Amino acid sequence: LRVISKAQELALTLDSERAIGRKIGLVPTMGALHLGHRSLIERAVSECDVVVVTVFVNPLQFGDASDLAAYPRDLGTDLVVSEEAGASIVFAPSIEEMYPSFPDPPCTTVHVAGLTDVLEGASRPGHFDGVATVVTKLFALAGRCRAYFGEKDFQQLAVVRRLAADLSLPVDVVGCPTIREPDGLALSSRNARLTPSERLASGVLHQAIEAGLDAVRAGERWPRIVNAAMAKILGGEPLVALDYAVAVDAETFETPHELAGNVRLLIAATVGEVRLIDNEGATAPGSQEPVLAGHGTNKTNKRES
Ligand code: AMP
Questions:
Q1: Interval 266-302: pLDDT, tens
Q2: Do the beta carbons of residue 163 and residue 42 sit within 8 Å?
Q3: Measured between alpha carbons, how far is 4 from 196 in angstroms, rounded to an integer?
Q4: 188 CB within 6 A, ligand 1
Q5: Ligand 1 atom at minimum distance from 180 CA
Q6: Angle at 238 between CA 235 and CA 239, to 5 degrees
Q7: What pLDDT, in 10s, does the model give residues 30-74?
Q8: How far is 197 from 219, CA to CA, in rounded Å?
Q9: Is 62 near ligand 1, meaning CB less than 6 Å away?
């Protein structure tokens, strides 16, 4: 495993690997690697010749200085996990290496319009600009490659796909399934900050998503009914404060009038001081089906949150 901290060294190394015909896989992370990250690295290793894990806690995507300061960091363990999973390179730059003007922001940032106005974008202003900017820089340094992102951050995955397409970047963006704890909690570096009772309570996020999925699969077509089913489960857990629990169109992230086709259920909630997100996809039955008795008056397009 080679550890690189300089941006130009990474770019030149990957250029020479490509020159001898090797395919590059890129796994961008903020470190504190867990089995969710490991699954991305293993997927990349199975599809590429040279896999680079990037470990960089990106200050641009944190609105809150205390959240940035509290973010877990453990490069030693990250190197072990990356090597065990089969990565060839870990790119771990300093903040100054990525942003020479830091703490002043770079003059050029990347904004993906539309997709970033809602949900995580609405709750965390500027967050996706920070993500889009660092991912664009990593794609520029890596050059032609396949880049692996988790569906756990489903809106982020959509933002990254969008920027790669809109900016004609030579990167195939690959979405990978969410890895979960036995009680359904999505693995996250932030889970380490939960107290034991908060950790226990956090299982309710996945239970709420399951309740929403059950409703969609049973033919529920009104988003607000599905949203209410999820909110009800979350409301039963006093340690969990709901931010949003919504059923949206999986491509546009808009609330459709009626659920049809590819639907995504997304939840964000705060447990203690820790903000957690989760999501799952479902295919809604076609909208040509008859309206269920008793639901005919619920034709509002409002999002419960
Ligand atoms: P992060 O270090 O949290 O920025 O995450 C780095 C990458 O790992 C992102 O593409 C995440 O979506 C992905 N990831 C994080 N948690 C999981 C998980 N539980 N399952 C699958 N992918 C994940």
A1: 999 999 999 999 999 999 987 554 445 444 434 333 3
A2: no
A3: 37
A4: yes
A5: 19
A6: 120
A7: 999 999 999 999 999 999 999 999 999 999 999 988 889 989 999
A8: 35
A9: no
- Does the C-beta of 150 come closer than 6 Å to ligand 1? yes
Report yes or no: 289 and 177 within 8 Å, Cβ to Cβ.
Answer: no
Q: Measured between alpha carbons, how far is 173 from 145 in angstroms, rounded to an integer?
A: 9
Global pTM? 0.93
Q: Cα 290 vs. chain centroid, distance in angstroms? A: 36
Give 170-230 as a DSSP string.
Answer: SEEEEEEPPPB-TTSPBP-GGGGGS-HHHHHHTHHHHHHHHHHHHHHHTT---HHHHHHHH
Question: Across residues 176-181, what is the average pLDDT?
Answer: 98
Among 170, 232, 167, 179, smallest CA distance to 204 is for: 232
pLDDT (0 to 100) of residue 130? 98
Give pLDDT, residue 287.
52
- Taking the C-alpha atoms of residue 158 and residue 235, their distance in angstroms, rounded to an integer, is 29
* Residues 153, 159 contacting (CB under 8 angstroms): no
Cis peptide preceding 103, ω within 30 of 0: yes
Q: Contact, 190 vs 276, CB < 8 A? A: yes
Known catalytic membership, residue 37: yes
The candidate with the shortest Cα–Cα distance to 85, out of 41, 48, 135, is: 41
Residue 60 is given by DSSP the state G
